[in-house]
Amino acid sequence: MTERFDVIVIGAGHNGLTAATMLARKGKRVCVVERAEQAGGMARMVDFAEGARGPDIAHLLYNLSPAVAKDIGLDIETRRLPTLALSPDGKHVEMTGGTLCYADGSAHPEAEAFTALHARLVRFAALLGQLSDAPPPSLAEGLASLASLRDLGGLAKLGLNLKRMGKADMREFLRVILSNAYDLLLDDLPDGPVAGALAADAVRGAFSGPRAPGSVFSLMYRMGQGGEVAWPIGGFGAFEAAATAAGATIRYGTGVSAITVKDDGVRGVTLQDGTVLAAGAVLSSIGAPLTMQLAGAQHFDIEATRRLRKMRARGTVAKLNLVLSAVPDLPGLSDAQKAGRLIVAPSATYVERAFNPVKYGRASDAPVIEAVLPSLSDPSLCTKGQQVLSAVVSYVPFDPEGGWTDAARAKLTRRITDTLAIYMPALSDIITHSSLLTPDDIAASTGAPGGHWHHGELSIDQLLTVRPVNGLSRYAFGVRGFYLCGASAHPGGDVTGSPGRNAARCLLEDGIPT
Q1: Measured between alpha carbons, how far is 178 from 216 in angstroms, rounded to an integer?
Q2: What is the CB-side half-sphere exposure of residue 179 using CA atoms within 13 A?
Q3: pTM surpassing 0.85?
Q4: In the chain, what are the domains?
């Protein structure tokens, strides 16, 4: 028997759940379909050893949109974390917001320059943040269109806010927006751990180094909510709780095998277990190319199909979860600082050099790492006497020469732990379990195109009106009642919820076909 809903949402990641909550709060009958056995997508929590659980892939909260939190009634408890830029000589640096000092509390010679640079980037990022909470602008329909008039008003507001910055800041914004992070950082800072940490933030998840044009844009994107970093206590389950509280139904354990399209409109989905769900609208939070494939390329414009198939999405991030028998020794850091965000990127040059091997299908011998010990902030993650270390590792190839054999995986794991051991002596002695996800694993477990965190490069030619591609950038996905609501859509990845919120608002504005 066919079940009927108003809207079906594919994927129970944070964007899919945000869209579902928005729609359910408006009284729509919503069903979320998730192939995994739990919600969360890349931000889900998993049990990876007896008595130990932690973040499967994404582990920190950077950029959650306040508009999303308000609109879906998100109740998420967070703990603000300092960033510790680790240095091989033990002179680690603590960054909290726009303040900078050595980890021992002593004054840092770069503090004033860092504070000024951080404040400037946050001001610029706030401008970009205005674009994230609405569909990308388009005047293609002419000024007679209500949407186009709204876009024009939004652009006018953006221009006014840019002008209010003053001439100096306005010129600086226009100068740096398309430039590279490496040069921007080294204009103001020496090439050390501070510049390295910022360079790492600019390119995390990207198939590019900090010298790449446009990497400043990526850095600003990550600083859209002031550049603060937090650990979500208990994980990201608040998105699931908000959806169920709003009345949305969530089905776990079976994915979508086909999206039904008839008479130029979407009609529902068929699940992998054979169940048929009917609806007047379908929102997909999985990657744009796979979404097109499930619906059938014949329903899309030929040029849009070609562009979707060529969308750049080469994942370069691996995830290593470790279970430890004790808190690791981190000379130079206090117990409170050990709970912070730990960055292994001793310089911007180090980050650039780490990128070079991945271009040729090899992982760097000196990887860039963002690590956190979440069990120090949330002891419920493991049994007494254990600790969890979560490490996001940049510049790991999706398809290395020879493939991801057991030997290749073991070699990468050793390379990561050996790098961490530079700062955590005797780390190998306290590791009781390790769990590695390569970009290939991430693609297989989440459906992310190329295992890419953002479902596609956050480069200037794949943003705003060309995300995912020109002509499909405003969430409506080529067929009546069909919408993208995930990281493939504007504004892109990170745990923001903005693609889901914006797509749901567009559907409500357009009306759900019957």
Answers
A1: 7
A2: 12
A3: yes
A4: 3-44+236-312+455-510 (3.50.50.60), 123-231 (no CATH)
